[in-house]
Predict the 3D structure of the following.
Amino acid sequence: MRRFRWLSPSPLPEVFDLRRRGWTLLSEEAVTGNLCPALLSDSHISTALPDNENRARTILLDVNSSVRRAEALALGFGEVLGSAISLAELEQRTQRLARAMGCVPRRLLHGPLELDLLLRDGIVQGKRLGLHPREFGLLWRLARSPGIAVTTLELLSEVWRVNFRPETNSLAVHVCRLRAKLASAGLGGVVRTTPEGSYALAPEGASAIPLAEKHPIRDEYLRIEGYLPAARKEPTA
């Protein structure tokens, strides 16, 4: 379905009204979960500037200065157009942006963490984490919506490709291993558990849990993987 949003506080001008071409204008109440292109007038950018992620889905309109258009593109807007554009051209550019939004990016960035879909690994300060396929799948899924809890059933469906809860604790084991590798790179506490048992990626800028804090399960895995030296055995009497 062809859907769009209007971000400016003023009424949608007829010249930019894609409803005249059969599109559906989403209300604010219907925005949640609907990733679709948005239109914004340059005259309202100071009061309705989207965040970085949503800016890439937004077409900035009424920008007649080429210098200003270049500045807006540098800010991360998906498209920047002047006021003389026809409705037919606006529709084509909106459709192109919608198609681009449906493409899977190669990389996701979350603070110092970079996820590379081609390598299927995480990178922190130039060093690879050595993630196993499902560890990477878990982290990639959580990084797609940082700060938003993802239930175990959703992770099992999207990463394990099963629609039931297995009797094994495979998900919990993979989360533990993933946390251990992140902690070894200084990103302890990035993957968090909600009181309901779901998982979420901590928002950017959230404080990490130092690796020095004792965590028996994590530390044992780090020793097995060679990140920490083997535990010293106390001499027997």
